[in-house]
Structure formats: C-alpha cells, structure tokens
Amino acid sequence: MGRGCTSNGAGNMRVYCETGELEIKFSIDVEDSELGIDTRLGNKRSFGYISKGTEFSPHPDKLALVAILNLLPFAKGELQIMWGISKRFQKACNSVTRVKIHSNYENISHSSTIKGGAALSFSGGADSTAALAVMPKTTECVFLLRSENPGRTLYDSDAAMESCRRLNSLGYQVHIVESDFEYLRNPIGFPTDLAVGTPAILLCDSGNFGSIAFGTILESAFGTSGKAYRDYRSSGHFRLWSALFEAAGIGYSLPVAGVSEVGSSLICERHAIGNVHQSCIRGKWGRPCEKCWKCFRKSALLAAIRGSTDGVDYIRKIGASKEVRRKVVEDRPIKHEGVLTYAFERIKYLESEAFELFRDLIRVGEIQTKWMERWYSGSSDLICNSYRDEVVENLERILGRMSDDQESHLKGWENESDSERDEKLARFCKSAGFLD
C-alpha cells in the first residue's frame, strides 16, 4: 500500500514517502532558499530501500525517523513530513532538533515500544562483529547493502556479503536491505552516522525488534579518537538520537561503547564468530586493499595483538598510500591515534630512525595504553536494559573491567596539537622523505 501525498504545505524542505512490501521510496522538494553555497545536498531528490526478503511494515513515526536521519543535515529552517505522524513524535523532534519538524496531516497514534527481540545494524567489520559476539545469540542482523554506482565510490560489498553468508551458516538471521541514500550528499557519504541503521528501523515492526544496536566503539562514543574525553551521555548526539528513537518506539543500544578498537579486535580474536569479519570495505573477501587508513590501522593492531614478527615496513606503507600519508601528516591530531600508540608500542622489531620518530610522534612511552584492552563499565547504561546483564557478563568474561586507575587514564585522555608536536611531525617527515 502506498503512502504519499501531494500538498502545497509550507516548509523549506518537504519529504514524501511511498511504501510497498519490499520497497520504500522517499522523495523531497526543496525551496531555493534552502540551497545555500554551504549545502552538502547534491542534485539527487529521492532515495529508497529495497528489502532482499523481509517485508516492510513500518509505523509512520519510524518512516519519519528514517527521513530525519537522512535529511536533517541538509535542512535549514523546516522539514515537513508529508504524512501523518504522532503528536508524541513531533513534540520529541521539536524539543531536540534545530530544524522545525512538523506535519500538517492528521495526527495518528504513536508507535508503542515493542517488547521484542534485539536487532544489530551489522556492517561486517570488527566493531559490529564484536557487538554481535557479546549480544544475545537470538540477535538478528540487518545489513545495509549500499547501492553501487561505479566511478563514484570505492566501496565493494564483496567482503561484507561474505560476512553475512558466514553468519547465516552459523545460524544467525541476517536481513539485507539495499539503499542509495549516501548519494544524497555531496561529496558522497552517509548524511548522519546513524543513517546506517535506517534499514533496521524500517524492519522493526515486521521483525518485532524492540531495540537496535550499533557497533559504536569507545573512540567514537567517548571522544578518544580525537582531542579529549567526553561523557557521551551528555553530548548533543546522544540527546538528539536517543530521544527520537525512544519517541519512535525503538530502543537505542550501544553494547560496545565502552570497548576501544583494541578491545573490539581482541573480542574478534577470542570469540568463535570473530573470523566472520573483514574491516576493509574496498577489497574482496580475504584480500583487503592494504591501501586505506583502516587497513593500515587494523593490520598494525592485529600484528601487535598476535605478536607478529614479519618485519613489515610501516613507514613504507605510509608513504605508499596517499590516504594513509594524509591522515598521518595532515590530521591534527591523528584520528584514532591511541590505537596506533597501542600497536606501535608493541611493534618494536623494525628499527629505523623514521620508525622511532613515528613512535615518538604518536607518543609511544608517554601515555598509558593498557586500559584499551579492557571494558569501561561506565558505559553499561548505554546497553538496552532487556539484555544488559548478559552483555555485561560477556564483556567481563572476554575483556574484563577497567580498573579505577585505567578509567582515570581514559577520562584524562588529551591529544591536542601544539608547537612541540609540530616539531616532532617535521622531524618524522624529513626522516621518512615526506617533505616533497
């Protein structure tokens, strides 16, 4: 049954929706005043979802949440939902969003929270695999299959689809939904980080999911990928999306928010399902590209965890990839630098001046990294209440809790750029030959 309207209602941006059993399509009208020189909205005016098996039957509030996750960054003044939504959902939107969100259509009953099973927005990478490893065994995975557009993206779905097949063979239910929403944005990319979970939102009602979990890890949730620790629960990101998920009748769950990238890799090494993942999204299954930033970081981390002594020349690897070199040389600070510090504190077999200067740049020996192996128990209230005890038990068994001292290292995380750091970078670049 389609749900669409034709109306001349006021609003800078209007979003329409047509629904079917296996396909849902959104389209937008945008006024000229909405398209300033700073907009990242491209020329695309529609986006859709195609289920590869499981039927859609989403409540209108959930459709609105999907629209907001994809369009909020592009809207300036108003985003008008061109179908009926509940008063509760509309009120929640306008209590936490900078954009006025409203519908001129008849209000409907709100979407009650489903007391159902757990869904995980699964990507095929280490972090979402680690989340699945500690969640209930009945957890169902929802995978976003990104629509291919050759020449416009480096993404390759081969490895992730193989991860889904392997999970299926292990008895996990995996739902696959294809979407092209990333092409709304210029440059191409997800409009919001949680847009990856929109397929799961659309399947909540038909799949009887009470909550959606994400593989968000500590570096992203608590700020240690950047300049300083933050309490995620007091962040604008948490206030916004947790409120809208709740208003749409969905639990918002982050089972590995207290686990660093080091910890998620350790979980994958120690758990039986760990071998279903591959973090690189550009290479084929079993053949990562070895050129992207993720490959560089993950390969170094795994070498450190496994005690590998294969003599990889990491300085050459930095120089051989424009992307990796840019991340190391231009980012202030280096994103996920703490993960590199952990890895290269333990990779000591390659001796060269440039290698030692790189270790100096990323503060090997200056900062503590052991805490990255443990679980931060202060994140437990970010786990859905219905399965929190089970997840906590699994995290404590596989990783163990951070000690008070380790928590103090986490909360004291700082990584600001200064003149001394710039001098270290200059010495490293000169030694490595990166000044040309």
The value of Rg in angstroms is: 22 Å
Helix/strand order: EEEHEHEEHEHEHEHHEHHHHHHHHH
Q: How far apart are the first and last residues' alpha carbons, in Å?
A: 61 Å
Helix content: 25-40%
Helical run tally: 16
Total number of beta strands = 10
Question: How big a fraction of the residues is strand?
Answer: 5-15%
- The strand line-up of the biggest sheet is 5-4-1-2-3-8-7-6-9-10
Shape: globular
Report the biggest beta sheet as strand number plus sense, adding barrel if it closes: 10 strands, mixed
Mean pLDDT: 92
Structural class: alpha/beta
Extract low-pLDDT stretches: 1-10
Using brief descriptors, characterize the structure shown.
disordered N terminus; 13% strand; 16 helices; single chain; alpha/beta; 10-stranded mixed β-sheet
How would you sum up this structure, described in words?
With 436 residues, this protein is of the alpha/beta class. The chain has a domain at 289-371 and 414-432. It is built from 16 helices and ten strands. It has a ten-stranded mixed beta sheet, with helices on both faces. Helix 3 packs across helix 8.
What's the layout of helices and strands?
Elements: E1 13-19, E2 23-30, E3 46-51, H1 60-71, E4 78-81, H2 87-96, E5 100-102, E6 117-122, H3 126-134, E7 140-146, H4 158-169, E8 174-179, H5 198-207, E9 209-213, H6 218-221, H7 236-247, E10 251-253, H8 261-270, H9 293-306, H10 314-320, H11 322-330, H12 337-346, H13 353-361, H14 388-398, H15 404-411, H16 419-432
Parallel strand pairs: 1-4, 4-5, 6-7, 6-9, 7-8, 9-10
Antiparallel strand pairs: 1-2, 2-3, 3-8
